[in-house]
Every structure is written in structure tokens, then in C-alpha cells.
Write a structure and sequence with these properties.
Chain lengths: 126, 335
């Protein structure tokens, strides 16, 4: 496998990981009201960039699932759609957050085990 | 910014009608926010190249429209659908040409009687519908298989150029020519109904006999007065609409009343007695043979009433749907 295809596979895997965290990342920011652009900026500021073409349809989907509520408002001479967590959304977010912490701890354990065994192997061979 | 308008038109044009307004509004809002957040001075119009770059990064209309749609519900997804429509159109045009050529050759050979014209024409229509449905089915299967095999899903966002977006379609306006033509036909119908009712009929020609038979009973079996009122109302509405150049609240209300009038008329015609003549011998103008008159009595007039009732039923359904739409608009817009 050449280097270029390796990089492509790696990028695709990183995208998969990020995609899995999208919903949780969005829900985490919508305890307070945001319009699409401000939410995207806020996520980007914290290191989680999302393309507009992904964010807006996802917000609509979450709203149709009853996790978000939205309202239109004119602010700064612009029509903005503000989103925030619904009651169901808040409950779902808390459950997801708990799951995430459990998963993160498990993953940390697995990854540190992997690091330890790797260094252990190195020690054996030397 | 016209490029944004064109982009929104391109995206929403790929979406179902119930999503278009809302998605269009949200797209505009987010694009304007993104442009306002750019580096150009506050209040200054962004250049076309800035807008183009933004749209390029945002995603092609196919991608964006696709992301708003629940993919698995579609037999042929939004990426393949435009190609499907294009291929279908080409196939149908080719089919129409092939069937058309055979029709022309039939006409070239000539007809023995007027009935032959109907036979050849109905064969032509049958052939076109049969083959057209076959082609449609085959294409649906091919594109659906392609869709399932991943033909409609690109693994990475494809390069596209926002400058190639189609131009904006003009906002729908009053079709004055269409209204004037409709008005002309309504006036012609009124004239025929009241001045030359005997001129509404069937011209029959064959090698040995020819003649004209009036089709409807006098006074259209009692429907003429209501039909005249409906036609006059149509003429009046079109005249006002042409002069005002746009729909106004009173015109919308008048439209509802006119539709109701037509629905009542169609209903009365459907449930009432036949207003097609019973005996062609008393209504002929020409030299029709006894055989031809029998043929009229046994087939043409019987089928004429059936066909007329079918047309009336179709018109009734059409007007009922229009009425529901108009009422919906009235409720939504508050006149």
C-alpha cells in the first residue's frame, strides 16, 4: 500500500471518529440558544469544525426527532433560526454524555494498555 | 446577491415542495452570515469570487439537497435523478419519432373511412403508451440497481463551479396570453351555445357518404343557462385579471365562487340525463346513408355520451382540487 492511499485511509478513519461525535458535540452546545452560524463558530473555536452542509441538515434532523426546538428571529437585520435543546433533547444529551464518559474511560484504558504493552515489547526485545 | 439566489434555487429545486421554503430560508440565512463573517469591510458587497468560493466550500447543490433528504426512502436518489430524467426524456423523444414515422406512413397510405382515422390514432397512442411504460420500467430498474450499487454516492465531495449554476427563473407572473386565449374560447362557447347551437356536432366522412350531425339536445338538456353564467364569470374574471396584471383578494374570492359554480354545473351534468341527441336521423345535415346513421346510433352517440361524462368527471376532480388549493391559500394568506 503506498503512502498516499495510507493517508487517505487514515483521513477516512479520522472522519469516521469525528462523525460519531457530531451529535453529542452539537447537543452539548445547545443548552443555550444558538443560530446555525454562531453554533458552527463556537464548535470551531473549541476545535470541532463542521461543514455548513453537514451542520444545517443535521440540526433539522435533530429537530424532527424532537431533540431540538427552533424559532426564527430577525437580529442585526438578518433572519436567523435559533436552536436549543428540548426537554427530550436535554434528557437524551445527559444519557449520551454518561455513555460518552464510560466509553472514553474504556478507550483510555485500552489505549494506555496498548502503549504499555508496546513499551513492554520494546523492553523485551532489548 | 444573484449567485446566492441561483444556488438556493438549484438546491431547493432538488427538494420536495414542502421543504423548499424552509430550507431556502435557512440556506440564505447561513450563507449571508458566512459572508458577513468574512474579511471584507462591513457593509461592502462581497465580490462574485468571494461568494463563489463560499459556495464551492459549502457543497454542490446535489450534495446539499441530498443531505436534506432521507436517502433510503428513495428508489433513485437526488444524485442520479436528474440523469434519470434526462435519459427518460431522450428515450421518449426517440420513441415518439419512431412511432410518429409509422403514423405518417399509415396516413400516407390513406384511409377508407373516418373510423380508420380513429383506429390508426388510437393504435398510435396505445403503442406510445405501451412502449413508453416499458422504457420507464426498464430505466427505473437500471437506475435503482445503480443507486443500490453506490452509483449515486460519491466517496468524496466532487469539484464544482458555482459560476455554472443555472440562471434565476423569473417569478411566476400572470399568463396574459393564456388568459386571453381562455377568454376567447369562453366567448366562442357562449356564441355557439346561444346563436349556433346546431353547429356543435360531428362531421362524418367516408367514401360513399358524408354529413354533419348536431351532437347536443336543444338548450343542452337544460344546462345552458348555468353554463352560460359560468362562462360569463370566467370571461369577466380573465378580463379583470388581465387589466390588473395580478391576483387581488377580491379576485381570489371570485375564483373560489367561479370554481364552485363550475363544480355545481359538472355535478348536475353528471347526475342528470344525457344531453346528447338520441336519434341522428332528425339532426343530420347532409347525405348520410342508413348504415352510417345506424352506426351513429349504435356506437358514436353512445360512446360520445360516455366520453363526455368522463371528461366532465375529470374536470370536476380538477376543479375540486383547485378549489381545495385556493381555499388553502385563502386560509394561509388570510385572503
Amino acid at each position: 500500500m503506498d503512502n498516499e492511499s495510507n493517508i487517505k485511509h487514515l483521513e477516512s478513519m479520522i472522519q469516521d471518529i469525528r462523525r460519531g461525535t457530531l451529535v453529542l458535540a452539537i447537543l452539548s452546545q445547545l443548552a443555550q440558544e444558538h443560530y446555525g452560524y454562531s453554533l458552527r463558530e463556537e464548535l470551531a473555536r473549541q476545535g470541532h469544525s463542521i461543514k455548513e452542509g453537514t451542520l444545517y441538515p443535521l440540526l433539522r434532523r435533530l429537530e424532527s426527532q424532537g431533540l431540538l426546538t427552533s424559532r426564527w428571529e430577525i437580529a442585526d437585520n438578518r433572519n436567523r433560526r435559533y436552536y436549543r435543546l428540548s426537554v427530550t433533547g436535554r434528557d437524551t444529551y445527559h444519557r449520551l454524555r454518561t455513555e460518552w464518559h464510560i466509553l472514553a474511560r474504556t478507550m483510555d484504558g485500552l489505549l494506555s494498555d496498548g502503549d504499555t504493552s508496546k513499551s513492554g515489547n520494546k523492553g523485551d526485545s532489548s | 446577491v444573484s449567485l446566492i439566489d441561483r444556488y438556493i434555487q438549484a438546491v431547493t429545486g432538488r427538494l420536495p415542495k414542502n421543504l423548499r421554503d424552509d430550507v431556502g430560508r435557512e440556506l440564505r440565512s447561513s450563507l449571508e452570515e458566512a459572508l458577513a463573517g468574512g474579511n471584507h469591510p462591513h457593509g461592502a458587497e462581497p465580490s462574485d469570487s468571494e461568494v463563489s468560493l463560499l459556495l464551492k466550500n459549502y457543497g454542490s447543490p446535489d450534495e446539499i439537497a441530498g443531505s436534506y433528504l432521507p436517502r433510503k426512502k428513495y428508489l433513485i436518489g437526488p444524485e442520479l435523478f436528474p440523469t434519470f430524467v434526462k435519459v427518460l426524456k431522450i428515450c421518449l423523444i426517440v420513441l415518439a419519432c419512431v412511432v410518429g414515422i409509422s403514423l405518417v406512413s399509415e396516413i400516407w397510405d390513406g384511409f377508407d373511412s373516418a373510423v380508420d382515422v380513429f383506429v390508426v390514432l388510437s393504435n398510435f397512442i396505445n403503442e406510445f403508451i405501451d412502449d413508453g411504460l416499458g422504457i420507464l420500467g426498464l430505466l427505473v430498474v437500471i437506475f435503482a440497481i445503480n443507486e443500490r450499487c453506490g452509483g449515486g454516492k460519491s466517496s468524496k465531495p466532487h469539484e464544482w463551479d458555482p459560476m455554472t449554476l443555472p440562471k434565476l427563473k423569473a417569478a411566476p407572473q400572470i399568463d396574459r396570453t393564456g388568459l386571453a386565449i381562455e377568454q376567447g374560447f369562453a366567448i366562442l362557447a357562449l356564441v355557439l351555445l346561444w346563436i349556433f347551437p346546431e353547429k356543435i356536432g360531428i362531421l362524418f366522412m367516408s367514401n360513399d357518404t358524408s354529413g354533419f350531425i348536431t351532437l347536443f339536445k336543444s338548450n343542452l338538456g337544460g344546462h345552458a343557462p348555468l353554463l352560460s353564467v359560468a362562462l360569463a364569470a370566467l370571461v369577466l374574471r380573465n378580463w379583470v385579471l388581465i387589466s390588473k396584471k395580478q391576483w387581488t383578494p377580491p379576485l381570489r374570492l371570485a375564483e373560489v365562487v367561479i370554481l364552485l359554480l363550475w363544480i355545481v354545473l359538472y355535478y348536475r351534468m353528471l347526475v342528470g340525463e344525457s344531453f346528447v341527441i338520441d336519434d341522428p336521423a332528425f339532426h343530420q345535415n347532409g347525405d348520410l346513408s342508413p348504415d352510417a346513421l345506424d352506426f351513429f346510433s349504435d356506437y358514436i352517440l353512445v360512446y360520445a355520451w360516455t366520453v363526455i361524462r368522463l371528461i366532465i368527471a375529470g374536470a370536476l376532480i380538477h376543479d375540486a382540487i383547485q378549489l381545495i388549493k385556493r381555499l388553502g391559500q385563502l386560509v394561509k394568506k388570510g385572503l
